[in-house]
Amino acid sequence: MSAVASINDFKLLNIKCKKYFDLYSKGASFIKYPESDKLKERFGFYLFMLESFCDEKDLDRISDIITDTEYNAYLTNERHNDQGVDALYINEEVKEIMLFNFKFRETFKAGQMQSSNEAFVSTKLVNCILNGDSSGLEGKLKALVDGAIEKLNTNDVWKMTLYMLSNEAVPIDIDETAIQQLKDFYDMEVVSICLPQIKTMMSIRPSPIKAELIIDNEALMSYSESTISTSKSYIVRLNAADIIRITCKNPDLRNNYNCERIELLAKEKIDYGVLFDNVRGFVQKSKYNEAIAKTLKEEPSKFFMYNNGMTIVTKDIKAEPVNGNKKVRITIDDFQVLNGGQTLRTLHNFNAQDEINISEYLSKSEVLVRIFNTSTSDAVNKIAEYTNSQNSISSIDLKSLSTMQIQLEQLLDEHDIIYSRKNGDTGMDDSKSYRYKISMEQFGQILFAIQGNPEKSSNQKQHIFGKYYDEIFSEKNFNISEAPSIIESYFDIKREYDTSAESLQKIEQKVFYILYMKRVRPDLEYAQCISELERILLTFETTNKTLTDARKMIQVRFKEFLNSELDI
């Protein structure tokens, strides 16, 4: 993480946040539309940060977890006390209850630090959750807290984390006595995120990065696709200090392959541009990272054996023998680290912890690095997909690199629609005014519904980019040229249902059914489909009289009943 942030970083973040709000507001109906740009930037800050930290690309779902009093007053005209917590997200995958406290400053001050008092403001809600009592809460917040209480009452082990996020320049010291006491008393992790860290998360296409290396012949193996090919790739055993050097921000050091003063690297920071195309998003903390750091310190010479290594792709690679053919000088131009991003981040974090680490530990560690010469984006995407498939990465992240998803992104961009393949996407062209933003996951659910599975689109969405993927996105079942009109229909229907009285989950499930009904009964107008679906939901009989519409719609029996009512 860069140690400082500038006023330009502050301005760039404001621009990005404003874009997030504008994109969301085009598909949502605010009862009272924010008039000032600063308020739009603040609300956009919520959306951007939550998308990044909750690994959720659907802005509608993100909006549903925002509990901030003022945000909801503008959105729904309901003003309920947020109790010092601006958003609450229940992460089922990692079993974490994530509480968010936001502070968005309107002006930049270089030395302004986050206030530790914000952490204590949130403790009232933490007490409600730990005591299992939401009786004093109202609206959206009460429903989310009830969900958190329900999770804590199960036999599963859940952790609770308070994320303090602000656009200020200096984070609080989470190790200070007061914060440490807070963590110990509530058994709750406290994470501070400020502008220096946020700026590394902003998707800005970097300038091409170039570096040079000197490799011993015994530490290098060349590879080419055929015996007559002049394009070679390499597998090398690379010193960890050299990895720090070629991925640092200093271009002079990156190209100084014969760097004799290794201590110069102790203060160097990672150039996050080398991770722009990395499949993994931002990872705050993981046991994997801790294990890397432990190995570096305790067994640096064995790091090569314990680590999976890194994969680098480069647009241009040159290699020439030097030192009487005993070594090879390699130049890589416009390169990206596609696999091993967590290793790279941890190496740099370890380097920053102590000035002696570069000479005492990193210089004694080696990493297996694959350097592929790639000239096409398709080749890069396939390398990223296949080299990451051995690791714990979600199927949707892996599929985001497939040719089909790249083609969809390009097609929809031409129709002024952002197809969000990764967190932080705000379009391929920063100068363009986009009409909609839709995530890969959302679009997969829509296709699954249209193809006859509206009852599975919500409760089996984890399989859409897994076992169902090849069928859903096959040429037989999906005509890619229809994608723009499908998305137009999705947002048209959603606007019809965009009332504050219903939660997003209900709205989305209904939209999935409307799209399905229109596909199988093209004679019906969308308004008729909506009317019919509401009628059928009322007449559908269940043994459980209190069953919600959301629970009804995931039942196969309900879809069969709907089909019979519509003569499908």
What this model shows, in words?
This protein has helices at residues 7-27, 37-54, 59-64, 69-76, 117-121, 123-131, 139-152, 177-186, 195-198, 240-246, 251-254, 287-298, 303-306, 341-353, 357-360, 377-388, 395-399, 403-414, 440-450, 469-472, 483-497, 504-520, 526-539, 549-553, 556-565, and strands at residues 87-91, 96-103, 159-166, 188-193, 210-216, 220-223, 233-239, 310-322, 327-339, 366-373, 417-420, 436-439. The protein starts with 6 loop residues before the first helix and ends with a helix. A six-stranded mixed beta sheet has the order 5-9-8-10-7-6. The protein has a four-stranded mixed beta sheet with strand order 1-2-3-4, sandwiched between helices. It has 568 residues and is α/β, with parallel strands linked by helices. Helix 1 crosses helix 2 (37-54) and helix 6 (123-131) crosses helix 7. The model is unreliable at 281-285 and 500-505 (pLDDT under 50).
Features:
568 residues, alpha/beta, 43% helix
Summarize, please.
The chain is of the alpha/beta class and 568 residues long. The protein contains 25 helices and twelve strands.
Write the layout of secondary structure elements.
Elements: H1 7-27, H2 37-54, H3 59-64, H4 69-76, E1 87-91, E2 96-103, H5 117-121, H6 123-131, H7 139-152, E3 159-166, H8 177-186, E4 188-193, H9 195-198, E5 210-216, E6 220-223, E7 233-239, H10 240-246, H11 251-254, H12 287-298, H13 303-306, E8 310-322, E9 327-339, H14 341-353, H15 357-360, E10 366-373, H16 377-388, H17 395-399, H18 403-414, E11 417-420, E12 436-439, H19 440-450, H20 469-472, H21 483-497, H22 504-520, H23 526-539, H24 549-553, H25 556-565
Helix pairs in contact: 1-2, 6-7, 12-14, 19-22, 21-22, 22-23
